[in-house]
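[Solved] Which block belongs to which protein?

Original post:
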Amino acid sequence: MQTVKFNELPLSDFMLQAIEEMGWEDASPIQAQAIPAVLSDNDVIGQAQTGTGKTGAFGIPAIEKVEIEDRVTQVLIMCPTRELALQVKDQIYQLSKYKKGLFVTSIFGGESYERQFRDLKRGSHIVVGTPGRIMDHIERKTLDLSNLRMMILDEADEMLNMGFREDIEQILSFAPKERQTILFSATMSREILGITKRFQNDPEHIKITRKEVTNDNIEQLYFNVRRDAKTEAMCRLIDAHDLKLMLVFCNTKSKVDQVVVELQERGYAAEGIHGDLRQGARNQVMNKFRTGNCNILVATDVAARGIDVNDVDAVFNYDVPMDLEYYVHRIGRTGRAGKKGRAFMMVPRRDTGKLRELERYTKVKIEEGKIPTAADLKEIKINKFKEQIKENIDEEKNALLEGIVDDLKEEGVSTYDIITSLLKMQLGNLDTTGKDDDLADGKRGDRSSRSSRFEGRGRGERKERRGSRKGNGAHGSGEPGMVRLFISLGRKDHVSPNHIVGAIAAESRIPGRVIGQIDMYDKFSFVEVPERDVQKVIKGMKGKTINAREASIEVAK
């Protein structure tokens, strides 16, 4: 598609001024097609992925069409999450900078009603919110849609996935029939088409193909790695590439919590965000990430909607995404504004099929990367330090430093000993002991691969876990016919593997001998049970306790 500049579109001078200040020059494909269509009063279906400029595609014409003199809600924008609602509101603010008198407000759950009541009563031309809170305000009669001229659904597919269909349809039914309806979605499911047929009038369908979405600035690699070695592999990649700001995506909330703990225990500044986090805590985590106090953000796909942080060095797909669309959403958060980005994916052998399916879907060949060994990291660290030494060599003499060296020489210390001592102080002990761990997910029956899942754990923990299995010969992690379950209790809850086996066997009426691998952590645990018994265990343990402590149990993904 031919590049279109913003000054070639039918936009006002105040809008072009705001766009220029934001550093935008060329309209993205979705912006170039959607802006004229929305300005022409047509209903529009925009099909495009995250990171393609959708907010500008509907936000720019929405601002242009607002009549400042009429202090009523003229535009309503629905978003699936609080984070996305805030991002959209912030971008609308920036774009409307030079349209004096335009008021924008956001309404979503997890925030006090007082500010929202005040803003709505004052009169907001544009309201951005989540479906649940929008319905709440409509029912309280604090949000009046009788004068609405434009309804915008952003990421409609995600709102339906989150169970908001009933709310969406109710909100649309409250709006005047004579309105413009704009819908943006990454996919066009049967449910989405049903909404468009019912609530839109002869919409113009604008679709941006995957080829146009693909970002050539992103290096995409996958790494064959055992499930229990993903964190170790990720840490080695972070250190090897000297990454500064990263997003890590997991498929479940429990996995987010687990990965955050593992990273923090290794000394990384990591925080997590998922649906169970309260709004205040979510805001704190995002502020830490945006200000650099935390440089690794671990998130689920839904919670990450609306996260818009520049200069993300790399995106880690800790889990292969369950939905193929999510992969495009994930990696679109790096390699922005013409900068280079990286997208790394941890792929255990059992997920190889998903990887091939993902390649067919994206039409991109994802190459296999090599996980750095401990020896590789040692060499990288030494080479980096050599470069730092060269960069810090100063032509001008430093009398103070020369004096220190001369004093040491007079005391009988050789120049070589001075240098090696300083190097040791700066670099620490670089010696590597023992065999370098192979993190690859080897073939079934490879003893080194199967036994290595115990490496790095204390003898006491290993003994405790073995004892809990009572020599039953159950399959280990990843064996055919076994399913891994997440338990919300761990060592700090004074729960042991024996407690877990006893509770599951008693409450689910399955023999203790069939229970497989148990992995204990401080705040949670994992247990493997036969696939045929999964529902029996989940139902049997519902509302039950382990060692007198209430436990929740779910399938770990």
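(Second protein starts here: sequence line, then its structure tokens.)
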Amino acid sequence: MKTKQVIYDNYFDLHSLNKYSSVMALGNGYLGVRAAHEENYTGQTRGMYVAGVYNKASANDTSDLVNLPDISGMLIEIDGKIFSMLEGDVLSYQRALRLETGELRREFIWKDKTGARFQFVFQRFVAKNQLHLLASKVTVTSLDQPARIKIITGIDAQQTNFGKQHLIEESVRVFNEEILQGVYQTTETGITIAIAASIHAPEGSRISFSAKNRQLNAAIVQDIEKEEPFVFEKIGTVYTSLEIANPESAGLADLEANSLLGYEALLEKSTSAWQEFWLQKGIEIQSTDAFDQTAMDFALYHMEIMTPAHDERFSVGAKGLTGEGYKGHVFWDTEIFITPFHLFTEPETAKKLLRYRYLHLQKAKEKAAQNGYEGALFPWESALSGKEETPEFAAINIRTGTRQKVASALSEHHIVADIAFAVVQYFQNTLDEEFMKNEGLALLKETAQFWISRAVEEGDKLSIKDVIGPDEYTEHIDNNAYTNYMAYYNVEQALYFINQFHDADEQFVSRGKDFLNCLYLPKPNENKIIPQDDTFLSKPEIDLTPYKQTQGSQAILLDYSRAEVNEMQILKQADTVMLLYLLPDLFPKEVVAKNLYYYEEHTIHDSSLSKAIHAIVAARCDDEEAAYRFFKEACLIDLGPNPHSSDEGIHAASLGAIWLTAMFGFANMSQVAERLTFNPKLPKNWSELTFPLTYQGRKLTVKMTHEHFEITKLSGPDLDIEINGREYRLSDRVEDEIKK
């Protein structure tokens, strides 16, 4: 296994504090911790989150992923003066997130105003091998003279979600002059959270404890000699009533069992779990630009730490567990952009993400009924309850003082078909008949019922009216191509699997066939362009060049109102291109290429989901230059130079899309007639691509260069595959090679 990449932050910069707090966040799918500096800086957002812990601050609010009490923060005094990198001089500085081990390390030399120099090393990790455990270590060395070090740290429950307080302090305790514990409860959902931390100070330190203003603290004071390191360790646990009846006792027991092992021993165990992850799921890229490998490693790391693989009751929020953007809500991003990674590496995790939807099927049926439809209408934004969590209004317009209504919950219904699409993908990959007969078929039938009831008659055709497709700059339109084709696929697959599993429902089958026969599906016009909706191609065009140069910033909304944007050929992301990615065999290659270029010309790429999908479709159209350029630009969404790109959390779906680009663009993998196929489109800059796959019970390794293609079956029965149009039978011999 090639050594995994490191994410560096080489300059202390107040403007990028929150970006790197997201980018360098730590986690394990249960627990996420932002990489905020231990010492406080104005504007810095601390954050610790547990999957599934949501709460409403008031009755009229939507649920927030609760920002829990902080245990990473520290107030450090040196010779009676509070330490800050804004005071004195920073002589050297480096912060590194080691993706191979999941450890964050900050190391620098700082000179105070008297000229005395100090070396600081801060280390921390969230355990990969134990869901509830996290640890930190601080080493301070005075390089020039004796000094007095004081650290105040503990459990800080003054944290809020952008000012909204979600927790009641139930109790704070100190046990055995070493362990701090705070117990809290969410105000609306009634979830109990128990946070504990053990203090390991150097021998001879003076330790005192205090509790005031929602802060439970330990103060550690020690005098040190020149070049004598002061080493302080803090081991913590987080438990909630979502997973255990008595989180207080469980947290203390866990802490007592682990804290005496110390930071380094615990890190070693966590590192072993990370190494296993990289062996099983890592991708290796030989490229002329090492950044390509860095971006891929970064994407895989974050997809692992954002996914609550331990519990099917939870799913992946749009920012993972790295920040409060979108309130931690779950969107279509999970099924379309993140689930495929798990499906092709660890299908059981993909199954749990689909089970999350199944467990909330009743709430989706209730939403459909409330809106006058049959079947299941899944919320545009979800949290713990399964109810719609989309805010009714957006932010206040500071010029008019009015709030704009958010239409997504009312009209952005394609999420229904997206979930159905993921169900079919899961079955095709796993052949899990038990799932399909139960959860899968229920999801397919109820989502199909929704579309059958959602369509309206217009002459001899059925239309789907007043929708929003993936392109959110075009609202309240009729017959959106993406929505209509995906709805057709949804109903078609429901009928197919009803027949496969002999689920007798004659009335549904009859209505479903009528729907398929009558649904209007936009066809390419004389210029081979598929109309995005009934009116898009008739709208006026403007020069989008200046807005493409500031993509991702929504700068166009500073010059035009949303209503004006809606009436022009302006796209946040091209949902017709998205359709061509998901259903690549709908149209001939020439039509796909024509639509890719037409719609890209009208797309600002203000959505982080956009670039990677364009990369995939461009690769399939043999436009290698555009595909690689789009891929590189997608990789820069979180890792690029914009100091505020990820302030409220990483872009979970765009990271999933980096993996998608390698698999479905450059390796050009697909499934045709129950057969796994490859038609590689490797960029010129890449000399080799190697990745693991799990497919229909087989463990595979794929390796490709520009000259040859090799696939090795590590386990499972024989497999029929297709490479560049030629069929092969992959036998049990693991040394088999298949070359172009």
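Accepted answer:
You had them paired correctly. Confirming on the second one: The mean pLDDT is 95.
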